[in-house]
Structures are given as structure tokens and as C-alpha cells.
Amino acid sequence: MIESASSDCPVLVLYTGGTLGMIPSAEGLAPGGDIEARLRRALAGLPPSRQASLPRFTVQSTSDPIDSSAATPRDWQRLGASIAAQVGDYAGVVLLHGTDTLSWTASSLAYQLQGLDRPVVVTGAMHPLESEGSDALDNIELALRFAAKPELQEVAIAFAGRLLRGVRTRKTHSEADDAFASFNYPVLGERIDDDAVLYPGRGLEAQQRGAPRFELPDYTSLAEGGVVRLTLWPGIQPWQLDAWLGDNRVRGALLEVWGGGNVPDDPELVGVLAKASGEGKLLAAISQCPIGGIAPGHYAAGQGLVQAGVLSGDAMTSEAAMTKLVHLLAQPLDEQERRRRFLTPLVGER
Ligand code: ASN
Fold first, then answer.
1. pLDDT in tens, 299-330
2. Is residue 16 annotated as a catalytic residue, yes or no?
């Protein structure tokens, strides 16, 4: 049973791997163990006043911490199930995750943990905890502070001094500490001096009424390739599109199209989309531009998408749209209901 969020409860820190906990190995950086002792040792280096104002926390680790480049929908499902089962016993959760696919996991968790009534804060680092000048400690400290705030009631990402909505965020830099951005939604909060400050009116708390509505479908079949992601390029051929969409293992696809929602003016190409749609495959489109949404049909060049029954993903990130397709296709919904839910904002993703 879910108890109401209480500041008396500790925060659960769940370690899944990533650079934050890595140590050097003969093959390069690889996930290290003993994370609880290492975290506590690092936090003990903070000034006493900052240590004193941190919430109490319990640490757990997945059985086999990974580089997040190896994560699959099965990992999203396992993490969703683990958090759903335990979150009621904690004030909030901090998920320590590799940065490479952090925004994918955060997006998937948002759909699995609908109606969440307390914080799930995902963080990681661009440098290992013990390396000189690492960003890891700052990120962990910030994530712990936000994870103890009962007003935060969604899956968010704490990184480089800012709190971003998980399902709006992308990794946009492969080297800088400030590696994540949420182009189409404002930041939820920020570090100001030593405080973690939430901006009013930006979070999901107003829509998290009543009991949590966790949806924990089995992603196994989708983890075997049921949803594909296709980025168009100038000169793409209908047979190339058909090679992906015509495969009967494919049940859904995210198309990353031009600008405001345009595709090449090629009836054969549009025919491939219409055929897949007609077979009941769930097709959605977003823009290749990271900023702004799409409105298929605004240009004549977008009519093909409309005619082929491709759903508009508006200003969703690739991560938000793909994980939503997986989430909807994993449930026993009829086609109309799936299409309706795709177009409906479920967790502030659109
Ligand atoms: N390859 C690492 C990972 O995603 C990158 C990182 O965490 N900074 O696990």
C-alpha cells in the first residue's frame, strides 16, 4: 500500500551503473561496486552545514550495474517494477544511471509511474565519483535534495544544477558537465546557492490527484524489436522504408521527419506508410529539429503523413515518443484507444 509522502521516511538511492560509479579497468572505465561506502565517503567531504541538511537515505544496487548504453526496455521494466514496489516506503527515489540513455529510462519510468505522488529523481555524472573535479557529487547532492521535496510529484532529472522534466529531456552534449537540455519545456527547478528550489506551477502535482495509477506492462515482446525509429534523409527510398516497416515483427514506428512535419513528395513513399498504418501498426512522427513541434498538413509536403494516418508527436522528444509507443503497444488496448492515448498528454510529455 502507498503511504502518503513523509519527510520522516528516508530517500531510496538506487544505483544502476553509469560513469558516476565507474572505476578504471584494463578496457577503460567500467561500472564499479561498493557504491554505498563510496557515496557516503564522498558526501562526508561536503561542508558540515550541507551534510546536515541532506535527507537520510538507503542505498540499493541492481545486481549487475551496467554502462547505460546496454540498457533495453527490459531494464526500464525492471526499474519501473522495483520503484513501484518500494516507493511507498520512501520520501522519494534517486536513481543513479548512466547518462547515455538516462533520458530514455526517465521517459519510460514516467509512463510506468503515472500518478506518482512523490519525487523520482534520476541523475548520473559525466565523470566518475572519485575523479578530480568530478560533477558526480554535485549531482547526487542536488538529486537528494529534490528527492526529499513532497511537492515534486513526477520523474525528473537533476543534472548540472538544474531539475528537468524527465520526459522532456535529452542528452545534448557528449562532454560538458551540462549535458542535458529540455528545449520545449521550462526547467522545473534549480540550485540557488545551497538550496534546491522548485518553480511553482511547472510540475505535475496538480494532475496527480488520487491514488497512483501505475501501469506496469510487460515490455518483453517490444524489447525484441517491436518499435523502430527512422530518421528520414534526403533521397530515402520507398524500399528502404518498407524494409523496416514491412517486417511483421514491427508493430510501431517513430518517424523523425523534416521541420514542421514534412516528408518527401513521393506517392510510393507515402504508400509504404499508408500500408503499414493499414496493417494496424502505430506510426508517429516528430521533427528532426530539437526545438519546436510539428503540425503535419501545414505545408502540402506534410499531407502524406496525414493521409497515411501517421500520428503527430507534436514537440515530443524522440525518447518520449519511442518509450510511449513501447508503453502503449505493450498493453492490451484496441487501436483507437492506443491512438487516442498517444495524442493525449499523459505525464506532461506533450
Ligand atoms: N557510458 C556512460 C553510461 O551511460 C556515460 C555516462 O554515464 N556519463 O553509462
1. 888 889 999 999 999 999 999 999 999 999 99
2. no
Catalytic residue of the set 16, 62, 72, 99: 99
The rounded distance, in Å, linking the Cα atoms of 319 and 317 is: 5
19: CA distance to ligand 1 center in Å? 5
Distance 125 CA to ligand 1 centre (A): 8
Q: For 11-208, CATH number? A: 3.40.50.1170
* Torsion region of 31: left, alpha or beta (phi above 0 gives left; psi -120 to 50 gives alpha): beta
Asked if domains 11-208 and 220-343 share a fold, the reply is yes
Render 83-105 in DSSP notation, one character per residue. HHHHGGGSSEEEEE--STTHHHH
Residue 181 alpha carbon to ligand 1 centre in Å: 16
| Choice from 22, 29, 64, 67 to test ligand 1 binding pocket (greatest atom count within 8 A of CB) | 67
Question: Domain boundaries in the chain?
Answer: 11-208, 220-343
The answer for 221, left when phi > 0, alpha when psi is -120 to 50, beta otherwise, is: alpha
The angle subtended at Cα 255 by Cα 159 and Cα 257, nearest 5°, is: 90
- The residues near 281 (Cβ < 8 Å, ≥ 6 apart) are 245, 250, 251, 252, 253
Specify the ligand 1 atom closest to the Cα of 125: 8
- pLDDT (tens digit per residue) in 138-178: 999 999 999 999 999 999 999 999 999 999 999 999 999 99
Name the residue of 29, 68, 131 to mutate for ligand 1: max ligand atoms within 8 A of Cβ. Answer: 68
Q: Which fold has domain 220-343?
A: Rossmann fold (3.40.50)
In DSSP terms, 277 is beta-bridged to none
pTM above 0.85, yes or no: yes
